[in-house]
UniProtKB/TrEMBL annotation, chain B:
GO terms for molecular function: monooxygenase activity; oxidoreductase activity, acting on paired donors, with incorporation or reduction of molecular oxygen. Residues 340-365 are annotated as: Disordered. GO terms for cellular component: cytosol. It comes from Streptomyces niveus. The keyword Oxidoreductase applies. Gene3D superfamilies: Luciferase-like domain. This is 5,10-methylene tetrahydromethanopterin reductase. Keywords: Monooxygenase, Oxidoreductase. It holds the Pfam family Bac_luciferase. Residues 1-293 form the Luciferase-like domain.
Amino acid sequence: MTTRLTIISGGLREPSSTRMLANRLEASVRTELAGAGVTVESSFVELRPLGHAIIDAMFSGFPSPPLEEAFGTVADADGVIAVTPAFNASFSGLFKSFFDVLPEETLSDMPILMGATGGTERHSLVLEHALRPMFSYLHAIVSSRGVYAATDDFGSQTNGAVLGERIARAASDYARLVRGCGSHHRRDSFSEETAAMERLLGGGRS
Amino acid sequence: MQFGIFTVGDVTPDPTTGGAPTEAERIRATVTIARKAEEVGLDVFATGEHHNPPFVPSSPTTLLGYIAARTERIILSTSTTLITTNDPVKIAEDFSVLQHLSGGRTDLMLGRGNTGPVYPWFGQDIRQAVPLTVEHYGLLRRLWREEVVDWEGELRSPLQGFTLAPRPLDGIPPFVWHGSIRTPEIAELAAFYGDGFFANHIFWPPSHTQKMVETYRQRFAHYGHGSPESAVVGLGGQVFMRPNSQDAVREFRPYFDNAPVYGHGPSLEEFSSLTPLTVGSPRQVIDRTLGFREYAGDYQRQLFLLDHAGLPLKTVLEQLDLLGEEVVPVLRKEFAVGRSPEAPAAPTHQSLLRERDTRAAKAKP
C-alpha cells in the first residue's frame, strides 16, 4: 500500500528551521507508516519560491502554472503536513495566503499534521489558535497533536531530544489517522458545479 | 465567423496624463467607437452592463438603440446583460424593440453579474444568483416564444395571460449567448438550451477556457442539439497593437500597470504569457488569435476588448484601424482554411429566419 504525503513548508530563510521541522515530521511519519507496512511517497511544496505567484493569484484570480502544480500536489495527497514559522503570534502571511488562494474544498476531509517554528516558546499555542481553526474551517481533519519547535528546541542538546520525542508522538498519532482515513478523494469543483446546474435545470421550470 | 469588439464601459483616468473623460464624453466615445467598428468592417459591437461607477453602460439597449440609428450593418449585442437583476419581462421588451429598430441586427449575451451590492438595488439577492439565472432565463425564453404566457416561479411574481409587446421581429427571438469567465455552470446552461456559449477568455488562462468550451461542446451534444463541433462558441480576446511590437509594449505598459483589473499583480509579460492578452504587432495578434482554434475548436465569434484602462479615444480608433485593415481580413481567410464542415456560421437574424422557413417548407405535405 502506498500513501501520498504532501509537505507544505512556509519557511522563508535558507536554511530554514521550518523546513528542518517539516523534514523531521515527514521522516518520522514515514517510519511510523513503514512499520505498518505502508509505503510513503512524499512531495514537498516550498512556499517561498511561490511567493510572487501567490500574490499574483490573489490579484488576477487564477494561478500561474507553478502554483497550479503546487495546488495539484496538495489535492492529490492522502495526507498533508503543514509547517509555518510563527510571526506576531500567528502563522506567517505567506502561509495563510497560500491557503487563501488554494481552490475551495481541496483540503476537505484531508488528514493534516500541523507544525510551527518560532523564536520562543511563548508562541507555542499558535498551532491551536491559528492553524487549527483555519484547517477546521477548511474541513480538514486535523491530527490531535501538532509540533511546535522554538529556537531552544533546536539549540540545546537536551531539548533536542525532547523535540524528537514530541515529533515521534505526533507522527505516531498522525500515521494512525492517515491509515484510518485511507486514500483521499480529490474534489473537482468544475464537474461539481456543472452537475449542480444540471440538477437545477432538470428540476426548474423552463 | 464574426469579428467584433466588446466594451466594459469603464471611466478610467489615463495614467499618462491623469485626465479622465466625463461620463458624457465616455458615452459619446462609445458611440464613436461602435460606428468606427462598422466602418472598418467588423461584424459585432457589444457593450457590457454595469450599475456602479466608474462604469457608464447602465442602460445597454438605450445605447444600442442610438447606435442602431447611426449604423447600417453591424450587429449590436451586450456583453453581458444581467439575467439575475434585470426583470426578464423588461429584458424581453427592451430587446424586442431593439430588434425592430435595428432591423434584426440584435443579439445578446447573458451573464449573472458578480457585484454583490448591485443585487439589492434591484430587489435581488446574490446568494440566489444561480437559481435566479435559471428561473429568469426559463421565463425569458417563453416570453419570446409563446404568444400568451401563464407562468409561476419562486423568485418572481407570477404572470397570467401575459403577451409580450412588441413580439420579436419576424417571430424570431434574438440569438442568446451565455457569457462566463470562470463558471462551468454557465457552460451547462448554454448547452442545455442549445444556445451560444461565450468564454470571456481574457482574464484567464487558455487551459481553463479549453475546459469550459470542451464541457459546453460535450453537453451540447448530450442534450441532443447536434455534434460537439456544431455548438456555437464565442471567445474574447484582448489586444494592443502598433506596427512595431516594441512600440506597442512601451505604449501599453503604463495602462496595464495601473488598470484596476490588472495593475500591481503579474507583469505585462507574465500576464501576456498566462492569458490571451497580446501586446505587439498586428502579425503577433493574428498568430495568437489563430492559436485559439487549437484549444477551442472552430468557433463562431471573436470579440476583442480595445477601449479600457484609460486609453484615449484617438488610440482606440487607431486600434480599430489596425484591426479592420490588417488583422481581421487575414483572420477571416485563415480561419476559413481547414474549417470543419460541421462548424456552423454564427447565427444571425437572417440565418435563423431562413432556417425556420426551410423547416416550415419541409414540414408541408
